[in-house]
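Check my protein:
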Amino acid sequence: MIRPHDLLWTESVEALIFPGVSPAWLARQQLRDLPLVVRRDMPRDGAIPVGIRGETRAQRAAAWLPPAAVCRRVTPESLAAGLSAASPFAALPPVRALRELAAQPWRWAWGVTGSCGYALATGLPVMHPDSDLDLTVRCPQPVGRAVLHALAQRLRTLPCRVDLQVETPYGGFALNEWLRDGRVLLKTNGGPYLTDAPWSAPQE
């Protein structure tokens, strides 16, 4: 099952569906060499919503990719589990933090996303010493605030700032927002949804 934050590669770049004209900066060769990031949106005729990264922060584009055009998939969980001490980014604080977390027991499936995950998957230097570490945690069942508070305290001991997204069956929310407010902006395929019950189906 393909989920948000997964990285997908395709050799069939012509299969990509854009909401309008494809961006002028977009290089076809780049699309064959680099991954697309699965994003939250509604499928389009069965195609997977993906995001495309260019060489600069301003170069971002949304598209859809038919499942049959996917030739490779890498998950946030596999990136965290496969972290090597020989990584060229091993000395950077986000990767040092990731190594600490990988050496500790977890009660949920979890993985790395954002610039750290993209750098580990591609070898591109899109991460710097001041980068945050973006994580995703799969929590299909409700979790008590005390348990999540203990997790937040654990993350504060790491050598960089950590942004953790808790994934429920209905979307993802920021851990710190939940602990601070008791309400969150749940990110769903249909758009953000303000709720105090992120493990419940969004109401119309």
Observations:
- The two ends are 26 Å apart (CA to CA).
- The longest helix spans residues 145-155.
- The mean pLDDT is 93.
- The chain is about 25% helix and 25% strand.
